[in-house]
Design goal:
alpha/beta, 259 residues, 5-stranded antiparallel β-sheet, 7 helices
Amino acid sequence: MKNWIELLLEFKSKQQPVALVTVTRCLGSTPCVLGSRMIVTKNKTLYGTIGGGKLEFLAIEQAMIALSKNKIIESGYTLGPEFEQCCGGKVEFIIEPMNQTPELFLFGAGHIGQEIVQLLVGTPFKVHLIDSRENWFKEKYLDPSINSCEVSEIDFKTFRDAVKWGSSCYVLVLTHNHAIDFDIIAMALKEETRFLGLIGSKTKKARFNNMLINELGIKEGMSNVVCPIGLPIGGDTPKEIAISVVAQLLQVHYQPIAK
């Protein structure tokens, strides 16, 4: 089997979420040794072992929790009769979720959008700034770490293709056009996201809610959309609004995912 570094690099290159289980302590008689490792994928495919049996089964279940919450877990078990093992030793291990970097796909590179993506530089977020206006990014300075993307209003499929949907996907909608805002929200509600936010007033939210329910048959309406976006910290300049939105994104990122 390939070594751990090679395997982890392969998973990283594919951005495939995995959990790395590492035995950090062995006391007494145990079915593994210090430093034993096991990689667990989301579909519970295993690479390596920490000794098999109920210990490994429980470690896999803990790995699923670590992946779902995107949080490091420390755990340990005494291998007594309840484990159907007579080792009598104790095993401690750490589980590290990997390749679940939060990715923000922000539609609308106006004043607030530009401020948001600049403020996110240096945070865990990988940022994509998306706009449909022709040559919009031509004379704008953005940090090199920010991916800018011009999409086509003519072929709306490009909006969907610009996003990598999933549990690590964050979408913000702040375009120059309310009709485009609505189309993106309607599209995103059919996909998996961790956070879906729309800039606008309560009136805009109510209008979109009625349109989603009555015109598109989306029964949930806007119930899964955050609108207005941003924490209520005050301030109405583009930078102040951006600060409130970035604070909200970080708050969601660091909160455990409810199961």
